[in-house]
Amino acid sequence: METKARILIAEDHVPTRRLLRNILSRAGHEVVCTVNGEGIVATVTSFRPHLVLLDVRMPKVDGFGAARALLGLPADERPLIVLITAFSETWEGLEPLLTHVDGIIPKPFSHASLTAWVDKSLSAPPRPPSG
């Protein structure tokens, strides 16, 4: 099977990380996982993913911190950035950041909804550079 896209998953909860990896790998994507957002820019620079899925609540560097770091990359080097959350998070003061990420996937998610969302996002036209 030909690889569709490279996807980086930053998720500290082992069962969720395994589930995401299994669903996306079976859908034909090349998947790399990390347990938090620490070193996310270095991982993105070396792996060059098309899409990064970031759990909002992680130790050391959470999804918001990782998203901020990725938004600092030049637009032509920046992957799609998607937050994964149970929506019990507090968004106060984060509205500017949320306007620059490419999406939010709610937990719990189904296999079908996750793959449909990923396929739709990867086939969308490139976003204009933020600034």
Could you describe the 3D structure shown?
There is one protein chain. The protein is α/β, with parallel strands linked by helices. It is 36% helix and 19% strand. The chain contains 5 helices and 5 strands. The protein has helices spanning 14-26, 40-47, 63-71, 95-98, 111-123; strands spanning 6-10, 30-34, 51-55, 80-85, 103-106. It has a 5-stranded parallel β-sheet, sandwiched between helices. The longest helix has 13 residues, at 14-26. It is globular. The N and C termini lie far apart (38 Å). The mean pLDDT is 85.
SSE arrangement:
Layout: E1 6-10, H1 14-26, E2 30-34, H2 40-47, E3 51-55, H3 63-71, E4 80-85, H4 95-98, E5 103-106, H5 111-123
Parallel strand pairs: 1-2, 1-3, 3-4, 4-5
Can you describe this structure in just a few lines?
By secondary structure, this protein is of the alpha/beta class. Helix content is 36%, strand content 19%. The chain has a five-stranded parallel sheet, sandwiched between helices.
Number of helices: 5
Helix and strand pattern: EHEHEHEHEH
Kindly, what is the distance between the CA atoms of the first and last residues, rounded to a whole number of angstroms? 38 Å
- Strand order, sheet with most strands: 2-1-3-4-5
Backbone CA Rg: 14 Å
- Beta-strand content estimate: 15-25%
What average pLDDT do the residues reach? 85
Low-confidence stretches: none
- Number of DSSP-assigned strands: 5
* Outline: globular
